[in-house]
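Contributing: when you submit paired examples, paste them exactly as shown. First protein:
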Amino acid sequence: MKAVISGSFDPITRGHVDIICRAGRLFDELVVGVAVNSAKNGIFSMEERVELVVAAVAHMPHVSVAPVSGLLVDFCQEQGADVIVRGLRFGGDFDYELQMAHLNKSMGGIETVLLPAGREFGTISSSIIRSAASNGGDVGEFVPDAVASALRGRFGTGGH
Protein backbone atom coordinates (compact mmCIF):
# COMPACT_ATOMS: atom_id res chain seq x y z
CA MET A 1 0.00 0.00 0.00
CA LYS A 2 1.25 3.47 -0.89
CA ALA A 3 0.79 6.54 1.31
CA VAL A 4 1.50 10.26 1.10
CA ILE A 5 2.58 12.49 3.94
CA SER A 6 2.55 16.17 3.10
CA GLY A 7 3.54 19.43 4.66
CA SER A 8 5.34 22.64 3.94
CA PHE A 9 8.43 21.38 5.81
CA ASP A 10 9.83 24.90 6.13
CA PRO A 11 12.06 23.61 7.56
CA ILE A 12 11.74 19.89 8.14
CA THR A 13 12.29 19.04 11.82
CA ARG A 14 13.30 15.91 13.70
CA GLY A 15 9.61 15.60 14.65
CA HIS A 16 8.68 15.43 10.97
CA VAL A 17 11.41 12.86 10.35
CA ASP A 18 10.11 10.76 13.24
CA ILE A 19 6.58 10.71 11.78
CA ILE A 20 7.97 9.92 8.30
CA CYS A 21 10.07 7.03 9.69
CA ARG A 22 7.12 5.61 11.60
CA ALA A 23 4.79 5.96 8.61
CA GLY A 24 7.46 4.36 6.44
CA ARG A 25 7.28 1.24 8.58
CA LEU A 26 3.50 1.04 8.11
CA PHE A 27 3.35 1.32 4.31
CA ASP A 28 5.12 -0.36 1.40
CA GLU A 29 5.83 3.02 -0.19
CA LEU A 30 5.69 6.52 1.21
CA VAL A 31 5.82 9.76 -0.76
CA VAL A 32 6.71 12.92 1.13
CA GLY A 33 4.85 15.73 -0.60
CA VAL A 34 6.42 19.14 -0.10
CA ALA A 35 3.65 21.70 -0.37
CA VAL A 36 3.19 25.45 -0.31
CA ASN A 37 1.23 26.87 2.60
CA SER A 38 0.15 30.39 1.65
CA ALA A 39 -0.78 31.09 5.28
CA LYS A 40 2.86 30.75 6.38
CA ASN A 41 5.80 33.05 5.79
CA GLY A 42 8.46 30.63 4.67
CA ILE A 43 12.22 30.98 4.65
CA PHE A 44 13.20 28.34 2.09
CA SER A 45 12.13 28.04 -1.53
CA MET A 46 10.30 24.95 -2.78
CA GLU A 47 13.54 23.66 -4.33
CA GLU A 48 15.47 24.17 -1.08
CA ARG A 49 12.77 22.46 0.98
CA VAL A 50 12.66 19.47 -1.39
CA GLU A 51 16.47 19.17 -1.16
CA LEU A 52 16.39 19.34 2.65
CA VAL A 53 13.64 16.72 2.87
CA VAL A 54 15.52 14.45 0.44
CA ALA A 55 18.61 14.73 2.66
CA ALA A 56 16.57 14.01 5.80
CA VAL A 57 14.98 10.82 4.41
CA ALA A 58 17.90 9.55 2.32
CA HIS A 59 18.35 6.58 4.70
CA MET A 60 14.82 5.33 3.95
CA PRO A 61 14.89 3.41 0.62
CA HIS A 62 11.12 3.16 0.07
CA VAL A 63 10.49 6.85 0.79
CA SER A 64 10.47 9.36 -2.07
CA VAL A 65 10.02 13.13 -2.15
CA ALA A 66 8.05 15.27 -4.61
CA PRO A 67 6.73 18.82 -4.74
CA VAL A 68 2.96 19.28 -4.43
CA SER A 69 1.07 21.86 -6.43
CA GLY A 70 -2.66 22.05 -6.21
CA LEU A 71 -4.95 19.84 -4.16
CA LEU A 72 -3.48 17.08 -2.03
CA VAL A 73 -6.13 14.60 -3.23
CA ASP A 74 -5.05 15.24 -6.83
CA PHE A 75 -1.41 14.68 -5.84
CA CYS A 76 -2.37 11.41 -4.12
CA GLN A 77 -4.17 10.23 -7.25
CA GLU A 78 -1.16 11.20 -9.42
CA GLN A 79 1.10 9.21 -7.08
CA GLY A 80 -1.25 6.22 -6.92
CA ALA A 81 -1.54 6.58 -3.14
CA ASP A 82 -4.41 5.12 -1.13
CA VAL A 83 -3.75 6.92 2.16
CA ILE A 84 -2.74 10.30 3.53
CA VAL A 85 -0.67 10.26 6.73
CA ARG A 86 -0.74 13.25 9.05
CA GLY A 87 1.04 13.86 12.33
CA LEU A 88 -0.72 15.23 15.40
CA ARG A 89 0.90 17.24 18.19
CA PHE A 90 -2.05 18.66 20.12
CA GLY A 91 -5.83 18.56 20.29
CA GLY A 92 -6.10 21.55 17.95
CA ASP A 93 -4.21 19.56 15.32
CA PHE A 94 -6.82 16.81 15.64
CA ASP A 95 -9.70 19.22 15.10
CA TYR A 96 -8.12 20.61 11.92
CA GLU A 97 -6.94 17.24 10.57
CA LEU A 98 -10.34 15.63 11.12
CA GLN A 99 -11.96 18.32 8.97
CA MET A 100 -9.29 17.82 6.29
CA ALA A 101 -9.70 14.02 6.45
CA HIS A 102 -13.42 14.33 5.82
CA LEU A 103 -12.85 16.77 2.96
CA ASN A 104 -10.15 14.59 1.35
CA LYS A 105 -12.37 11.51 1.65
CA SER A 106 -15.30 13.32 0.05
CA MET A 107 -13.27 14.93 -2.73
CA GLY A 108 -10.92 12.09 -3.60
CA GLY A 109 -11.91 8.96 -1.75
CA ILE A 110 -8.57 9.08 0.10
CA GLU A 111 -8.41 7.73 3.65
CA THR A 112 -6.35 9.54 6.30
CA VAL A 113 -4.23 7.94 9.03
CA LEU A 114 -3.33 10.17 11.99
CA LEU A 115 -0.11 9.46 13.90
CA PRO A 116 0.60 11.11 17.24
CA ALA A 117 3.90 12.94 17.49
CA GLY A 118 6.65 11.29 19.48
CA ARG A 119 7.35 12.62 22.95
CA GLU A 120 10.86 13.86 22.25
CA PHE A 121 10.02 16.36 19.49
CA GLY A 122 6.23 16.51 19.66
CA THR A 123 6.04 20.13 20.75
CA ILE A 124 8.44 21.48 18.12
CA SER A 125 7.08 23.16 15.02
CA SER A 126 8.71 24.64 11.95
CA SER A 127 7.34 28.06 13.00
CA ILE A 128 9.16 27.88 16.33
CA ILE A 129 12.35 26.73 14.60
CA ARG A 130 12.16 29.61 12.08
CA SER A 131 11.59 32.14 14.85
CA ALA A 132 14.36 30.85 17.09
CA ALA A 133 16.92 30.52 14.29
CA SER A 134 16.15 33.97 12.85
CA ASN A 135 16.76 35.44 16.29
CA GLY A 136 20.13 33.74 16.77
CA GLY A 137 18.98 30.60 18.58
CA ASP A 138 20.80 27.28 18.28
CA VAL A 139 18.15 24.87 16.99
CA GLY A 140 20.57 22.17 15.86
CA GLU A 141 19.17 19.52 18.21
CA PHE A 142 15.68 19.90 16.73
CA VAL A 143 16.48 19.66 13.01
CA PRO A 144 18.49 17.33 10.76
CA ASP A 145 22.12 18.36 10.18
CA ALA A 146 21.47 19.60 6.63
CA VAL A 147 18.74 21.91 7.96
CA ALA A 148 20.99 23.24 10.73
CA SER A 149 23.60 24.02 8.09
CA ALA A 150 21.03 25.70 5.83
CA LEU A 151 19.76 27.79 8.74
CA ARG A 152 23.31 28.87 9.59
CA GLY A 153 23.73 29.86 5.95
CA ARG A 154 20.48 31.82 5.96
CA PHE A 155 20.80 33.52 9.36
CA GLY A 156 24.44 33.05 10.36
CA THR A 157 23.16 31.01 13.33
CA GLY A 158 20.66 28.27 14.02
CA GLY A 159 22.77 25.16 14.32
CA HIS A 160 25.71 23.73 16.17
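Second protein:
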Amino acid sequence: MVTVSVFFDFSKAFDRVDHLMLITKLKNLNSSDSVLHWIYSYLTCRSQAVNDSVADTVSPLSLIRTGIPQGSVLGPLLFTLYLSDFQYVLKNCKYNFYADDLQAYFHCKSKELTDIESYLESMMISMP
Protein backbone atom coordinates (compact mmCIF):
# COMPACT_ATOMS: atom_id res chain seq x y z
CA MET A 1 0.00 0.00 0.00
CA VAL A 2 1.03 3.58 -0.67
CA THR A 3 -0.04 6.77 1.08
CA VAL A 4 -0.24 9.95 -0.94
CA SER A 5 -0.43 13.24 0.98
CA VAL A 6 -1.13 16.69 -0.41
CA PHE A 7 -0.63 19.78 1.73
CA PHE A 8 -2.42 23.06 1.00
CA ASP A 9 -1.65 26.39 2.61
CA PHE A 10 -4.15 28.93 1.37
CA SER A 11 -2.32 32.19 0.72
CA LYS A 12 -3.99 35.20 2.34
CA ALA A 13 -7.03 32.99 2.85
CA PHE A 14 -8.53 34.99 5.72
CA ASP A 15 -8.32 38.17 3.60
CA ARG A 16 -10.32 36.61 0.76
CA VAL A 17 -13.47 35.58 2.60
CA ASP A 18 -16.53 37.06 0.88
CA HIS A 19 -18.83 38.45 3.60
CA LEU A 20 -22.14 37.77 1.85
CA MET A 21 -21.09 34.26 0.88
CA LEU A 22 -20.10 33.56 4.50
CA ILE A 23 -23.46 34.84 5.76
CA THR A 24 -25.26 32.66 3.19
CA LYS A 25 -23.30 29.60 4.29
CA LEU A 26 -24.01 30.35 7.95
CA LYS A 27 -27.70 30.71 7.13
CA ASN A 28 -27.59 27.32 5.38
CA LEU A 29 -26.07 25.91 8.57
CA ASN A 30 -29.23 27.12 10.40
CA SER A 31 -27.71 30.08 12.23
CA SER A 32 -30.32 32.36 13.75
CA ASP A 33 -31.10 35.76 12.23
CA SER A 34 -29.66 37.52 15.28
CA VAL A 35 -26.36 35.62 14.93
CA LEU A 36 -26.24 36.39 11.19
CA HIS A 37 -26.85 40.08 11.86
CA TRP A 38 -24.19 40.18 14.59
CA ILE A 39 -21.57 38.47 12.40
CA TYR A 40 -22.40 40.71 9.43
CA SER A 41 -21.97 43.83 11.56
CA TYR A 42 -18.71 42.38 12.95
CA LEU A 43 -17.34 41.91 9.43
CA THR A 44 -18.55 45.00 7.59
CA CYS A 45 -17.79 48.70 7.88
CA ARG A 46 -14.20 48.10 8.92
CA SER A 47 -11.29 50.16 7.65
CA GLN A 48 -7.53 50.13 7.94
CA ALA A 49 -4.56 52.42 7.51
CA VAL A 50 -0.84 51.80 7.21
CA ASN A 51 1.46 53.50 9.69
CA ASP A 52 4.95 54.14 8.31
CA SER A 53 7.00 54.78 11.43
CA VAL A 54 10.18 55.51 9.44
CA ALA A 55 8.61 58.31 7.40
CA ASP A 56 6.27 59.20 10.28
CA THR A 57 3.21 59.06 8.01
CA VAL A 58 -0.16 57.33 8.08
CA SER A 59 -2.01 56.39 4.91
CA PRO A 60 -5.64 57.39 4.39
CA LEU A 61 -8.24 54.97 5.75
CA SER A 62 -9.25 52.26 3.31
CA LEU A 63 -12.55 50.37 3.57
CA ILE A 64 -12.16 46.60 3.97
CA ARG A 65 -14.62 44.83 1.65
CA THR A 66 -13.59 41.19 2.16
CA GLY A 67 -11.88 39.11 4.79
CA ILE A 68 -12.24 38.26 8.42
CA PRO A 69 -10.25 39.72 11.30
CA GLN A 70 -7.15 37.73 12.14
CA GLY A 71 -5.69 37.20 15.57
CA SER A 72 -9.05 36.54 17.16
CA VAL A 73 -10.69 33.35 18.40
CA LEU A 74 -13.61 33.96 16.05
CA GLY A 75 -11.48 34.30 12.88
CA PRO A 76 -10.43 30.64 12.47
CA LEU A 77 -13.94 29.47 13.40
CA LEU A 78 -15.58 31.69 10.77
CA PHE A 79 -13.00 30.62 8.19
CA THR A 80 -13.58 26.94 8.95
CA LEU A 81 -17.34 27.43 8.60
CA TYR A 82 -16.76 29.34 5.36
CA LEU A 83 -14.97 26.31 3.92
CA SER A 84 -17.26 23.71 5.49
CA ASP A 85 -18.43 22.63 2.04
CA PHE A 86 -14.97 21.18 1.35
CA GLN A 87 -16.41 17.93 2.63
CA TYR A 88 -18.32 17.62 -0.67
CA VAL A 89 -15.18 18.16 -2.73
CA LEU A 90 -12.99 15.91 -0.57
CA LYS A 91 -15.32 12.94 -0.49
CA ASN A 92 -12.91 10.27 -1.78
CA CYS A 93 -10.07 10.89 0.62
CA LYS A 94 -9.31 11.48 4.26
CA TYR A 95 -8.29 14.96 5.32
CA ASN A 96 -7.30 17.19 8.19
CA PHE A 97 -8.41 20.78 7.97
CA TYR A 98 -7.93 23.75 10.25
CA ALA A 99 -8.12 27.43 9.38
CA ASP A 100 -6.01 27.94 6.25
CA ASP A 101 -4.19 24.59 6.22
CA LEU A 102 -5.48 21.42 4.57
CA GLN A 103 -3.89 18.00 4.36
CA ALA A 104 -5.58 15.45 2.08
CA TYR A 105 -4.33 11.90 2.04
CA PHE A 106 -5.11 8.70 0.20
CA HIS A 107 -4.25 5.07 0.83
CA CYS A 108 -4.04 2.97 -2.31
CA LYS A 109 -2.21 0.22 -4.09
CA SER A 110 0.78 1.38 -6.13
CA LYS A 111 -0.98 0.42 -9.36
CA GLU A 112 -3.76 2.93 -8.50
CA LEU A 113 -1.40 5.95 -8.33
CA THR A 114 -2.40 7.17 -11.82
CA ASP A 115 -6.07 7.19 -10.74
CA ILE A 116 -5.19 9.12 -7.58
CA GLU A 117 -3.26 11.69 -9.63
CA SER A 118 -6.27 12.23 -11.91
CA TYR A 119 -8.56 12.53 -8.92
CA LEU A 120 -6.26 15.12 -7.29
CA GLU A 121 -6.25 17.23 -10.44
CA SER A 122 -10.05 17.22 -10.65
CA MET A 123 -10.35 17.91 -6.91
CA MET A 124 -8.11 20.97 -7.09
CA ILE A 125 -10.03 22.35 -10.06
CA SER A 126 -13.37 22.01 -8.24
CA MET A 127 -12.26 23.56 -4.94
CA PRO A 128 -14.26 26.64 -3.94
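If you have annotations for the second protein, write them as plain sentences, like these:
The mean pLDDT is 86.
Strands lie at 2-9, 46-48, 51-52, 57-58, 62-64, 94-98, 101-108.
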